[in-house]
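[Meeting: bench + compute handoff]

Bench side (C.D.) handed over the final construct sequence. Compute side (W.E.) agreed to return the predicted structure before the next meeting so the bench team could plan truncations. Sequence as handed over:
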Amino acid sequence: MVVAPEFAGVENGRDRVAAIADAALKWAWPHALDLEKGPNIRFEFTADGESVPGPKPLDDPVYREFASAYIEGRQRILDPGYGSNWQTTFTSIHSKKPKRHLGLLTYRVSHSPLATGSELENSVALLRDPRMVVKYLPVAAQPNGVPVFGVFISAPDMNKEFAKSEPVTHDDWVYQKTAAAKGMPNPVRIALDNIRETFRSLSAQGAKAANGVASKGASRVAAALGSLLSGFAGTGAEEQPPTGPGVPGARRPRKAAVRQVATATLDLLDEEVVAQYKFAVTGGRPGNNLAIRVAARVVTESGGNESASPADAEMPRFAGWVTGHGALFSEEVLTVSLPYDHEITAMFTQPADAAIRVTATVEELEIASN
């Protein structure tokens, strides 16, 4: 029974039932999952004799992220040796004095790099037995803009401690309500602080990494569809400082090189997700032409390159160049005249559930008249 439900602005009977179904999805989605033995709760909604769709978390673009994290976290609890893919990270939350396991935080980057507009982006669903969602705890967003979703499952022996912190509505963890013995730390406050700090640290690390190209020509971006790795080939391409007319006292290098000038980003091109790599050309003999080539490979967990497409997976595909003038070229080899002082962008399709590495090489084509 739902006593005196609030239906502000909802007059239609079917819409009211749909609102209840939406609430069931938001707060009870763990019980709608089929974890080998079927869902814990059978949800059925009808209005005026007609069926209203019930919660299907794995079919929803937002709740499927929480549900996937929950499924992975549950598996890790059942099997401490269980490992997941690059999308999912497990973090044990514990107190130090005394040393106690408070619960497991499982978080994952979104399937999609695009914002959903949901208020639940960058939040952690707080769960205890009987695994209803108590609250969605907001956490720090990541600098690359890719939404992060997490689930915290309290340890079984801490269930009573977390329950004591809840108000009568059971929609929050208020650590002040949990009375700790004198001189003893408050486990609810420690858990909440550690969860927030986990994402603050991730955000700070991401912001630091975005301030420049990493050493040895590698730039890593945590992205929804895979990490984006960049490699460079050619004379001086590894760690070449900026040069050119705008740099006081700089001399133009005799040999041409290419360097990345910004972290890789994700975008949509003709309804496909593409990874964008922005480059700048330095050096070379004025009057000559420069041929720029790029290639992308899937990266294995050990850091090597896949020579062929993994089973049931696709390889990144070259999607085109965008020059400094905004022109789009589909040829894989881009030829420019030196000196070339504009930035250029190479685009590759981003395979799902994969990391890719992009390499760029240059070849100076000497003009016969020179």
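W.E. noted at the follow-up: The radius of gyration is 26 Å. C.D. will use this when planning the next construct.
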